[in-house]
């Protein structure tokens, strides 16, 4: 067997996987979407029809805010944890992976226990001020839920990069007179950027498509994954569900591509 | 490296008074008094863990001394001044160049932070890059230049802020041997041309000799000896310095009637050193041995020899087990088992009081 054929053999499992779980379903989905009453135009209902468009905007804003908040929390925490050794550090880091093990539905329940009608926050505020503060079923509840499962994975990604950062880079910048803010801007954040991008992209994509948490909490708000679910099961409009699915995938992909190209331009300092 | 016109910068004098540093109850720097004149280059030389890097970082302001008023620049107490305000140039072993900036952006960074006008900054960056011979690499990314070029970029970046003192922490340790040897000559010349006060940390004695106006040999948190390279090499203050700097031979024995005598079959030594009768250790450098015939002071049996070109390093035993290293002319062949006779000038013999 020559080496070329051997290479093909190595890539075969991935090729089969891609074909079976990406190309074929997407093709089927595309056909399904195009076979609806609106035909090709079905792909664009996500922007042409007000109900879908509003839902898309809500989902996008929620995902962007979640990503920004996650990155902010994770970047600060990663830098704090990176160069400090303290008792219980290993335990803390392993506990951070804990939320990763929860399915979205469980995260949803946790948010309800926290901010639901009989939740912790509600009981406390009721006894203090007399009003029962409930936010679990709002966009804010969704945001908290997304934050809960996004922060750990993004934090671990950025932490790995922060630990690899050469401390003499910061010392060199200090010797040149750079303030802590300038050091963040010119030295630390550029060095952490690839990890922040990877983590942020993961966070954004997850937030755009998260279903379990949304299913538990989104009783009053319509995020796109809920919309797909409703179209598919309640309205039994499979072609519409398929069209929205493809549009959601495409928009998520495009948003990540734009973010990547912009960010890469920024980091190269051109 | 080109020699663009450089206005001598001088820099500040540095003095430390009973400077100490304690980490977690462990005193890594014993009380240290140090005087470095403006424009001088002091090399801190020693094995790892001797405190040389701690001393450098204290001078830099990256570590805080144990007490107040322990470090002065030009007579001003800077002990409490943070590194951002201390105006020191630093060069690191890992280069510590900003990978997201080009060569010239790195050099200009300190001036940019200081708010220097763009046109002045660009002109100064060009001047510095020319000085370190990197004018053709100004727009290269850091990852696209060699290790030697990176270290010269780091040097230019440190000099760009017109520092009061320049501090170099093993700047050549990450380079390969050939490049290291070339760069240590270049850096030595450049530092003298700039006339800046510099403290240079290394564990490489050849580098220390080439660069330092003075060398401070450090051992277990204290300065074992501080002097010009010639004295450090030829008149080491103690055993540790003698051992750490260059190769040193030792002959231990009893001096009686002013002569240290050793006998073993056809080898032996009779070194006339004078003084009272005593147990002692006499030391000498390999290159102090002069071939001699007949009644040579020392006769030793050759064990092995290594050819270096101009000289050869001969390992010989004066008595079984007492090995000496001798640098002898390479024109003569010395075979194992052969007896070699040599003399050592009285001035070249070093005897430590406590030995």
TrEMBL record, chain A:
Its main location: membrane. One of its GO terms (cellular component) is plasma membrane. The keyword tRNA processing does not apply. It holds the Pfam family BPD_transp_1. It is a multi-pass membrane protein. Gene3D superfamilies: MetI-like. It comes from Enterovirga rhinocerotis. Keywords: Cell membrane, Membrane, Transmembrane, Transmembrane helix, Transport. It comes from the Bacteria. The chain crosses the membrane at residues 57-78, 90-114, 134-156, 195-218, 238-259. Residues 56-259 form the ABC transmembrane type-1 domain. The keyword Protease does not apply. This is Putative spermidine/putrescine transport system permease protein. It is found in: Cell membrane. Belongs to the binding-protein-dependent transport system permease family. CysTW subfamily. One of its GO terms (biological process) is transmembrane transport.
Automatic annotation (TrEMBL), chain B:
SMART domains: AAA. This is Putative spermidine/putrescine transport system ATP-binding protein. PROSITE patterns: ABC_TRANSPORTER_2. SUPFAM superfamilies: MOP-like (SSF50331), P-loop containing nucleoside triphosphate hydrolases (SSF52540). One of its GO terms (cellular component) is ATP-binding cassette (ABC) transporter complex. Keywords: ATP-binding, Nucleotide-binding, Transport. GO terms for molecular function: ATP binding; ATP hydrolysis activity; transmembrane transporter activity. Pfam families: ABC_tran, TOBE_2. Residues 14-245 form the ABC transporter domain. GO terms for biological process: quaternary ammonium group transport.
